[in-house]
Design brief:
It is built from eight helices and 15 strands. It is α/β, with parallel strands linked by helices and about 280 residues long. The protein has one domain: 4-Layer Sandwich (Metallo-beta-lactamase, Chain A), CATH 3.60.15.10. It is globular and about 50 Å long. The relative contact order is 0.16. The model has no long low-confidence stretch (mean pLDDT about 95). The structure holds zinc ion (2 copies). The site of one zinc ion (ZN) has 5 residues, from loops.
Length: about 280
């Protein structure tokens, strides 16, 4: 893919670009609430060539003198993704220029890119903003104790990352992050999972984090959850609520696992919803 073609949208004063981090190999078996063959059929109809793969985006937001990044990809952890930093450089953005990193949540495919191989901050001049419930969760020793082996590695990475950025970590308040950009708490996938709204006169964009991992499947059937959800029932409730809101408010959607097109709109279809990737 030619890096210069990364999809961008102008929302008021802000230009938002979906910067690919690459793919992680996953499996439709991670889903619950749907038979694997039905999930595969939906992927096939949506034209997805590798139905078990999950694509990863970070979003660059530029405008009003700010350079912000929403999530940072995997950093190459677990042999997945890891292309975000090079792709930022390819479109002329040095990691030193990023003044703010907004985190949707602390899973490794979102924070892995925040530390270099020596476990030092990659975005040295950036403030790291996240929901306080997210930090509380990953700092909770009781939650760590009951986590699976993979979960325990995730706790380790989240703690290491928050420690490395400790001087620059800030929690969302009720205020805007900056004029026109505000956090929206979307709990369930993780306790502090948060989206970001960018509102301008004529349109609004919602970067919805991990509301879906298999976008076509989980919009067609919003009750389908994925093994990564810390609270699948709440994740489902939040997904249904936000899908309805996306239709009602005609929101443009961006999401870390929406695919390389990076942006989509949502409409009602059958018993669920349909996601349409929007043209440039
Ligand atoms: Zn996640
Ligand atoms: Zn994710």
């Amino acid at each position: 893919m030619n890096p210069l073609t990364f999809p961008s949208r102008q929302i008021g004063d802000f230009q938002v670009t979906a910067v690919s981090d690459g793919n992680m190999s996953a499996s439709l078996d991670l889903l619950s609430g749907i038979a694997t063959e039905d999930a595969a059929r939906i992927q096939h109809h949506a034209g997805i060539a590798e139905p078990g793969n999950i694509h990863i985006n970070g979003y660059l937001i530029r405008g009003r003198g700010r350079t912000m990044l929403v999530d940072a990809g995997t950093g190459g952890l677990n042999n997945a993704g890891g292309q975000l930093k090079a792709n930022l450089a390819a479109i002329g953005i040095s990691h030193d220029e990023v003044d703010t990193v907004l985190l949707t949540h602390c899973h490794p495919d979102h924070i892995g890119g925040l530390l270099d191989a020596e476990k030092r901050p990659v975005f040295q001049h950036a403030e790291l903003l996240l929901h306080h419930r997210e930090a509380d969760y990953w700092r909770d020793d009781e939650k760590l104790k009951i986590a699976s082996e993979r979960g325990q590695r995730n706790f380790g990475l989240a703690r290491q990352t928050l420690d490395a950025y400790a001087q620059n970590v800030r929690f969302f308040s009720k205020d805007n992050i900056t004029e026109g950009i505000s956090p929206l708490w979307l709990p369930g996938h993780t306790p502090g999972h948060t989206g970001f709204r960018i509102d301008a006169d004529e349109k609004s964009l919602l970067i919805w984090g991990d509301i879906v991992h298999y976008p076509h499947i989980q919009t067609a059937q919003p009750a389908v959850s994925i093994l990564f959800d810390t609270d699948p029932a709440l994740a489902e409730e939040t997904r249904k609520k936000i899908l309805a809101q996306a239709v009602r408010e005609k929101l443009l959607i961006a999401g870390m696992h929406l695919g390389p097109a990076g942006f989509a709109t949502v409409s009602r279809a059958d018993t669920g919803y349909r996601l349409s990737c929007t043209a440039l």
